[in-house]
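Sample pair:
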Amino acid sequence: MTDTPTPPVHTPKPKTTLDKDLKKITKVEAAAQVQGQAMARVGLGFLFLVAVWIFTSNSGMAFSPFVVAAAVIGGYMAINIGANDVANNVGPAVGSKALTLTGAILIAAIFEAAGALLAGGDVVSTIKSGIIDPSLMPDAQTFMTAMLAALLAAALWLNLATYLGAPVSTTHSIVGGVMGAGIAATGFAAVNWATMSKIAASWVISPVMGGVIAAAFLYFLKVNVLNKADKIQAAKKWVPVVVAIMAGAFTMYLMNKGIKKVYKSSWTEIIIAGAAVYALAWYATRARVTAISKNMENRRKSVNALFVLPLIISAALLSFAHGANDVANAVGPLAAIVSASDTGEIITKAGIPLWVMLVGAVGISIGLMLFGPRLIKTVGQEITKLNPVRAFCVALSAAITVIIASALGLPVSSTHIAVGGVFGVGFLREYLSHRETQRRHLSPIAAAEAGAMEGLHTIEGAAPELQHVPGLAHTSDETADVAKATTKPNAELKAKQRKLVRRQHAWTIAAAWIITVPLAALLAAGLYFAMTALGVKP
């Protein structure tokens, strides 16, 4: 009997100093590449501001150096609006993978610019929300200096917020800037404190309304479509309804906010138009879902796919409405400075020269393309996990909340609404997950069976030891995570502690919202005093 030869044992070679050095070099090269890309983005943004400076200095309109500086700062403000605020419109679509990051940026850039140029209006309010009394300004020069300080303060705060990864309200930023500069120029009597109290109330109203409405629609879809055994039939019944609600809501939203500067609609016209579009959208969506359902699998993934197209359309429409409204945050103070420079008077409603509107529109698009991806990822991916259904509920919530708030005369922030909607769907998922954990006592089989009956979303990648359990392939993200958690030590404790909303982002964003107005006001006051001390005059 011969001995079987023992196969040679291959021992891994110890890493040499050369291997370690190569890894270090690779890391350094990767870091250098990232740093180089960041510097390139900053450089391109700077080139845009240089172009604004060259144009205004050599346009033949005899602008003073003060107006030229205001134009450059207006462009800087527009860049920061694009970098920070536009993420709310397309972030959920990107996070749900309905749109790629590149596709979302292109759609948003086009529709933001289109909204600004086509529906931005010919006249803009130079003092946002009437928060200060311009009659208390001693002269036009003081007014122009205050507006420049307000504009620069708002832009600086937005830049800092973007760097910190916090989506904040550009409207609140400019409101704080105008308030701070107004107080510095004329004293506390200049501020309309009743208006400021409403704005402060919107810090709570906006995110709460957005979150509650988004969570309500998501829960409705879970109960009536995603949890049903026959998801195809349920989708044929209810998907046309909710898509039609979105179509009608966006029609009312655009008429009330998006094109109000081009055509001022009455509430009767808005309601009739919304109802008409609802009916048309219901009919068209029913036909589309019926056709698709013939080859559709009875899975949540298939239901999610039905919401991709409406989600893309909503991202485009939100961007259009944002461009039509929020371009005023960039060009309003600039238009005020240009008008005061031309007339020597303080004007509360100023005409917008085409070049001023172009600075705002192009600046927003450039800011979005160069610096927007960071906040898009924060809103769409880092707060909570989104899929097309959840993202659809966030977009629908944004339109409905603005309509309700407008009808009630409540000031709300589109940024706070959208981010509140993301938190709303996340906290609903977390609540349902914890409820499921408590009810099933963390039994893996019970959790899997519960998922088969009450699953909320198709998952992949369940724990191997649980894949044999009937129905696990149809459990929700929440239920499956609970089931997997039970295979580990201290499962009950870990399941109770598991969070589906990242608290770090919640606290960071909440803190940024709270300090936006006071911090922008302090910055503006400081800048105004600095300009005065340095003798900077129009």
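Residues 17-57 form the longest helix (41 residues).
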